[in-house]
Target: ATP-binding protein
Amino acid sequence: MKFLGRGRELARFKEELDAARPSLVILYGRRRVGKSRFLRELGKSRKEIYFQATRVSSLLNLEQFKIEVANVLGALPVLESLPSWEGVFYYIAEHTRNNPGLLITIDEFPYLLDGDPALPSILQKFWDSGAPADGGLKLILCGSSISQMQDLLSERNPLYGRQTLSLDMKQLPLTDVARFFPKYDAEAIISTYAIFGGIPHYLQLCNPDVPLKDNVVKLLLTETGTLVDEPNTLLQTELHEPGFYSSVLAAIADGCNTTSEIASRLGVKVEKITPYAAKLVALHLISNTKSLDVDEKVRNRRFRLDDSLISFWHRFVRPSLTAISGGFGEEVYRHVVAPGFSEYMGIAFEAIALEYARIHIQEKLGLPAKELGQIWGHSDFDIDVAGRLLNGEYFYGECKWTNADIDMGHLRQLRERSERTRYGRGTAGKHFLLFSKAGFSTDLIDFAKDETRRVHLLTPNDLVRTNQ
Model:
């Protein structure tokens, strides 16, 4: 299948690997995010030793690694006799003297750490010896265990300070997801993104030639659907006690957004929730944010699901598993998903608008944001999108995923709210962004044409077809 997206990341990695010096690169991110496919694309035009570690002993992994080395550099008796990782690395370095720029990619590096915790120390000794410099050796260490990979970057780790590039690979942005579905209109692409997120594995399972509904039924609402149990599979792969983690996610999906609310819902003490929530944050499955207008000392934080598939699954699939197992996927879609999807999209659209502001707001306002979030906690209003540009100017946004146009009344309401919050109150030069599925009233469109009014109207087409 054709490789799509990741243009910025590929360019940065290629720049690093083209540098006339040794490179030690750390790449990590949650499972299914496309790290291995990215690495294969990166290594296409390079001489590369690619090794994917497995959950076996260190000795068995070393033996397989030597086979991969032999496939690229040739099988010499001295290689077969080397008993240690250190010896093999020096063997490779010796060969790069005459073949500079060799790329070594070790995928699922945490599996090696499980079998040999001393490996970072071994690599540190090898790296500091100067051997990699002679041939400009390029080494990429990749893994899905985010905590173990981040530990390689911590001050206490032997490899600390030696990496020349590191990347926590996130989901694809909406504009990249659009490339998977060239026949979909903007509304369908945004809806697809709200269900499957920016996870390449999920997107590649979809058939871009059929309507979104067909993909949802086939993958999520069928007993044998590839993704019908994906949230459980993901948690079982990554975590101990997957059942409790799933319960925390279910509580958040049901609207419990503080530790006390989650604890109350699950019938446990608040203290028990904290470490589980922290782990889910580290896996990028949830986020924990504060309202932009609260005092720094106030502990006013909310949890939110950051994984679209998990959000959709808990909202529509989990409550319907009995019907799905009975073969009634079409009925589940018609009577459960379809009636509740607009409400689901209303929340998802806010997150999509926030992502737009994070990545693309400079295309509308001329500068990127230095601060971004939401405003909540007031008795009678929230603000869906808010932030500050690099020059200190504030912006506020309203999101509507309905079939009704946004009109002048919505703009007046947003302006009033911007003065009621302490965030940017009384400042001049405010910008107002209105995100609408349906569009905008004629008088609002005419009003926004005057750029001095700083009113910016954004449709699904604007979000999907943004300059990349």
